[in-house]
Amino acid sequence: MPEITQAPRKVASTAVATKVSYLGNLGKDIPAGLVVFLVALPLCLGISLASGAPLLSGIVTGIIGGVVVSWLSGSQLSVSGPAAGLTAIILTALQTLGSFEAVLAATVIAGLLQIVMGLVRAGIIGLYFPTSVIRGMLAAIGLILILKQIPHLLGVDTDYFEDMTFLQFDGKNTFSAVASALRSFGWGSALIGMLSLGVLLFWENVLSKRFALLRMIPAALVVVILSIVLSSVLDLALPVLRVRPEHLVQLPIVSSWGDFLNIFMAPDWSAFSRSTTYGVAFTIAVVASLESLLSVEAVDKLDPHKRATPTNRELMAQGAGNMISGLLGGLPMTAVIVRSSANINAGGQTKVSAFFHGLLLLISLLFLETILNKIPLSALAAVLLVVGYKLTKPALYQTQWRLGMQQFLPFIVTIIAVLLTDLLKGVTIGLVVGIFYILKTHYESAYFMRATPELQGTGVYHLKLSEHVSFLNKASIVRVLEQFPAGTHIIIDGSESQMIDYDVLEAIENFRQSAVDRGLKLELRGIKSVAVLGH
């Protein structure tokens, strides 16, 4: 008879609060905030386009996420803003509600719902996602970033942001877009993109390691300045290689106070009286909350200091951000892993970097449009390629493989599922695989069984139940009890069990009633209530 050991006991973990020095980390947070700004700016514009919303609504959301939510959140490194996972929901909401102003009303309600979720402590949901699934999500996002940015690096796509799903808005999918880019690309954009990628790698892996002073200068800033210069040189000296306007950042010009005020839109107050608005609001609240919880869980794993984000506070922070965003004409927001990982990889240490990126978005909207509109998108794509590689390094796959199939299979399934569907669907599929292994572990860890030493050879088996025996353990216990041959003496010992589920007790009672007919001798220890079951 096989020996099955008891499941290891849970070890309680305590989050240790660490003192954060905001002024002491400005030297790292300011450059990191600049990098996040360079990544966030085109994404904010692109998500607006992909959502069918006014172009500047994504910028409004990014500003609120940086300036407001960064301080309300308990996360030091998470960055909030418009999210890829909500684009399809916004598109559907526009069709359902009939106007963007009505969607703004739903966003305000969704924010209120998120605050309520935080107050009732629903943030604990994020703690139930296995580490293997979170790592798979990060690796998949890294691969998606690489695959999605290749066309932009080569100057093919006319829209900077294709949503993070496998099937794109232009009718292509992730792989067909890459194949198309490799067949026909813009030489000027490709030249700047490849040079930018080379400078990034050389700066981070060689120069910054040899010269301490250069570590203070973010490589992304160097690349952006260099790309503007190169684009201007090509425009003047080699017009045939000129970067086409659609492959440059396209930030709307705000030339007057009136233009600035027109950026902001008020919600349609009449939409609050329609039931459909609340259905859309509930969908936004649930999806935005899940994406935020997944993102902060992933950020905590990437954080070099391993700080823990209070999830209920995060829900309330996101809720407040969405209420403000809806009132001012912005898109719904979440904590976003792409910008957060860019923040971490750029050396961000505290929430000052996210706040500074929000300030830069506001300043760029008011004063820097002319300069920013000269940045080639291929240079920004190079920045995101490096971010993507850091999220999906080969060493990560090797580590997960060494941990065994129980860790590797949910990890790799999550990656494939996210690549072929979208973030939430992919994580859900990975979670199902992870739950399978959890159930399997429960199935196998219900008891410890051995032949009693002093009665070896006499057919006596001691089946000692675990500390907690749930209904998930019923199948394994029943399976073992059915295997004993006639003449066996069985001791079922629940003396050290704090909880034995009713279903298990009922199965033991059924076995007790049939034991005599099967020629078995049954002895029960610490299972006093069994005798009254089944009546």
Structural notes for this entry:
The chain has 535 residues and is an alpha/beta fold. The chain has two domains: 23-132 and 185-393, no CATH class; 447-532, 2-Layer Sandwich (Transcription Regulator spoIIAA), CATH 3.30.750.24. It has 20 helices and eight strands. The strands form three sheets. A four-stranded mixed β-sheet has the order 3-4-6-8, with no helix packed on it. A two-stranded antiparallel ribbon has the order 1-2. A hairpin with an 8-residue loop joins strand 3 (447-451) and strand 4. The chain starts with 25 loop residues before the first helix and ends in a 10-residue tail after the last strand. Mean pLDDT is 82; it is low at 1-17, 452-457 and 531-535. The chain crosses the membrane at residues 30-48, 55-74, 86-113, 125-147, 185-203, 212-234, 278-299, 320-338, 350-368, 411-439. Its main location: membrane. InterPro entries: SLC26A/SulP_dom (IPR011547), SLC26A/SulP_fam (IPR001902), STAS_dom (IPR002645). It is found in: Membrane. It is a multi-pass membrane protein.
Q: SSE order in H/E notation?
A: HHEHHHHHHHHHEHHHHHHHEEEHEEHE
Counting structural domains, the number is: 2
Q: What is the spatial order of strands in the main beta sheet? A: 3-4-6-8
Multimer state: single chain
Helix percent reads 55-70%
**Proportion of residues in β-strands:** 5-15%
- Count of helical stretches: 20
Q: Which structural class should the secondary elements be placed in?
A: alpha/beta
Distance between the termini: 33 Å
The largest pleated sheet is described as:
4 strands, mixed
InterPro entries: SLC26A/SulP_dom (IPR011547), SLC26A/SulP_fam (IPR001902), STAS_dom (IPR002645)
Protein name: SulP family inorganic anion transporter
Membrane topology: Multi-pass membrane protein
Domain STAS: 459-535
